[in-house]
Write a structure and sequence with these properties.
Elements lengths: L1 H19 L30 H21 L8 E6 L11 E12 L2 E12 L6 E8 L17 H6 L3 E6 L15 H5 L12 H18 L3 E11 L1 H12 L5 E5 L17 H7 L23 H7 L3 E7 L7 H11 L2 H6 L21 E6 L7 H15 L5
The protein binds alpha-D-glucopyranuronic acid.
Alpha-D-glucopyranuronic acid (GCU) binds next to helix 7.
Length: about 400
């Protein structure tokens, strides 16, 4: 009996180990043939050819597919929202920027959640200024510092006449599988926890971006009609989902957002659905787990998220050594998803080059892409291309 139990325990630990080390595929020749759902055919099988059919039939269908199968809902109802300026930290750029630390207080059903937004507004020029919001999950806040240059290029943005804001994901929902609900989810939307398609961490961070947008709409120095949503990696996934839900964002830029973000899941290159659901079960909804190892059964793929952002501008960026995030899968998803611009909206967008041929950033109206050399990170080089893309799409700033 004892030996039977230890044999079972051994088997169990071998399985757990195997799970932990599911080898990632980095071999292009092993990528399965791609059979992707067609964004331009409705669930009933009808072709979608007009803006009217797209916006009334197909776009809402695709949004629900993502909500049910991948990310979960983003509830948007609440009773009250208020903003108070609480500046406490030292402004690292006193000569060029005004720093506002804003507490955003949201109440629902008698409960209140407060999130903190840090905002830099150019001192020179009269505004209202276009704004970049970065959903952040990096350390600086935890150390009491507001900015880690490069990752959040405040100095360069402000000098170019942009306002910029950022919140840390912890202020909305902790990035931890045991604690993720201990923010806005338990406090304001507890009923979501019992739902298989309920809000989870990525949705909660997207909710935070929406509340930041509510603040931009109230702040007279900010032009909320020219707002850019940026996220890196896990927060890039959240930015993409937030913008699919909230059409107030004029430009959406997920950087190296990889699996569950920009990259096509059905390529199973680098990180896979099973790997991400095992390591980060709190990011996506419960239904997404059913696709562990079964990407081919997903009734969608990530190129369809690009199409949800249209006709607003969208830009993906990758890094050459960041194979975990599948740069080619990110490019293909942009290339395929952005067909919504010519097909539906009659706007010229084209990505004529194959992934292997790309050298320069593709900066054009509506949809863009770059891959830079180096590792997984958000860098000044990335921000410079974002500013070029934003200037092309939202116009030059009159500083
Ligand atoms: C992990 C995770 C990725 C994620 C990344 C990040 O590597 O597997 O999906 O994008 O963390 O957020 O930096």
């Amino acid at each position: 009996m004892k030996s039977k139990i230890s044999f079972l325990l051994l088997l169990l630990s071998l399985t757990v180990n195997l799970m932990a080390q599911i080898p990632a595929n980095y071999d292009e020749s092993k990528v399965p043939d791609l059979i992707l759902p067609d964004p331009f055919v409705s669930l009933k099988g009808n072709p979608i050819l007009t803006v009217e059919d797209w916006e009334n039939i197909r776009r809402p269908e695709i949004l629900v597919l993502f909500e049910e199968n991948v990310y979960g809902q983003i509830p948007t109802d609440f009773d009250d929202i208020s903003f108070s300026e609480m500046t406490k930290s030292q402004n690292p750029y006193p000569n060029t920027a005004i720093l506002k630390e804003v507490d955003i207080k949201v109440s629902r059903g008698g409960k209140t959640h407060t999130m903190r937004l840090n905002v830099f507004i150019p001192k020179n020029g009269k505004g209202p200024f276009p704004v970049f919001l970065l959903i952040n999950y990096q350390a600086p806040y935890a150390d009491g510092k507001l900015v880690e240059e490069g990752f959040w290029a405040v100095k360069e943005l402000v000098e170019k006449g942009y306002a910029t804001a950022s919140f840390h994901v912890e202020t909305v929902a902790p990035d931890d599988k045991n604690r993720f609900s201990k923010g806005v989810i338990e406090r304001l939307y507890p009923e979501q926890l019992g739902q298989k398609d309920g809000m989870r961490a990525l949705g909660a961070w997207g909710w935070g971006a929406m509340r930041a947008m509510d603040y931009f709409e109230k702040e007279s120095l900010i032009d909320a009609n020219r707002a850019v949503l940026v996220g890196h990696s896990r927060s890039g996934k959240a930015a993409l989902w937030a913008s699919a839900n909230d059409t107030r964002w004029a430009v959406t830029i997920p950087n190296e957002s990889g699996c569950g973000g920009a990259a096509l899941s059905k390529r199973k290159f680098g990180e896979t659905v099973q790997v991400i659901n095992t390591a980060f079960p709190h990011w996506f909804n419960d239904n997404f787990k059913a696709f562990n190892g079964k990407e081919e059964l997903l009734p969608l793929d990530q190129h369809m998220l690009v199409s949800l952002v249209a006709p607003r501008a969208i830009y993906f960026s990758s890094a050459r050594e960041d194979r975990w995030a599948d740069p080619k899968g990110e490019y293909l998803s942009m290339k395929l998803g952005s067909r919504v611009f010519p097909f539906i909206y009659g706007k010229k967008v084209s990505f004529p080059l194959d992934f292997e041929e790309l050298k320069e950033p593709v900066i054009q109206p509506f949809a863009g892409y770059h891959i830079r050399e180096g590792e997984h990170d958000l860098t000044l080089e990335d921000w410079k291309s974002y500013m070029d893309f934003v200037e092309m799409n939202l116009g030059k700033n009159d500083k």
